[in-house]
Every structure is written in structure tokens, then in C-alpha cells.
Amino acid sequence: MSTCTYLTTDELSSRIKYDSRTIRDRLKDSVLLEGRHYIRPFGGRKTLYIWEHIETDMAHHSAMGSEAIPLANGGVLHG
């Protein structure tokens, strides 16, 4: 079984240096996707972010450069 580091919005905010409100209002459901980057344990309202997936995807998208357009399914469009 793999071990994941689950973070609250405030904990993620301090790691990636984005305001908590920016994470909730602009990144969640556009860049951070449910099931990949965050979960809602037990069907509740609380959101827990999966640090390892966020860290991997941030580094991957940064390395691709600005010409790649990220797609919702995790792929990219090179334009």
C-alpha cells in the first residue's frame, strides 16, 4: 500500500506559496483535480490534498515549458 501525504488547504498553501483562497477559488477543479490532486474523505466537505501528486505534476508541467497546454485528463497539447 502506498503512503500519501494528505494536506489541508492551509498546509498546501504554505508549501506552494499560494494563498489559501487562490487554491480554493482558482486552482481547485481547474488545475487541481478531484481524485488526482485531492480527495473528500468519507464523502464529506473537508478537502485533503495529495502532496506527492501535486509535487509531481508541478515539476512535470514546469519542465514542459510554456508551449504545452495541459488537458483535463492529464495529457498535454503541444502547440
Topology summary:
Layout: E1 6-7, H1 9-16, H2 20-27, E2 38-39, E3 48-50, H3 51-64, E4 68-70, E5 76-78
Antiparallel strand pairs: 1-3, 2-3, 4-5
How would you describe the overall organization of this protein?
By secondary structure, this protein is of the alpha+beta class. The protein has one domain: Multidrug-efflux Transporter Regulator, Chain: A, Domain 2, CATH 1.10.1660. It is built from 3 helices and 5 strands. It has helices spanning 9-16, 20-27, 51-64; strands at 6-7, 38-39, 48-50, 68-70, 76-78. The strands form 2 sheets. It has a 3-stranded antiparallel sheet. It has a two-stranded antiparallel ribbon with strand order 4-5. Strand 4 and strand 5 form a beta hairpin. The mean pLDDT is 87.
CATH first level? Mainly Alpha
Number of helices: 3
Q: Give a short account of the largest sheet.
A: 3 strands, antiparallel
Mean pLDDT: 87
Q: Total domains, how many?
A: 1
**CATH-scheme architecture:** Orthogonal Bundle
Spatial gap, N to C terminus = 38 Å
Structural class, by secondary structure, is alpha+beta
Major β-sheet strand ordering: 1-3-2
In short:
The chain has 79 residues and is of the alpha+beta class.
Notable characteristics:
single chain, Multidrug-efflux Transporter Regulator, Chain: A, Domain 2, two-stranded antiparallel sheet, 79 residues, alpha+beta, 3-stranded antiparallel sheet
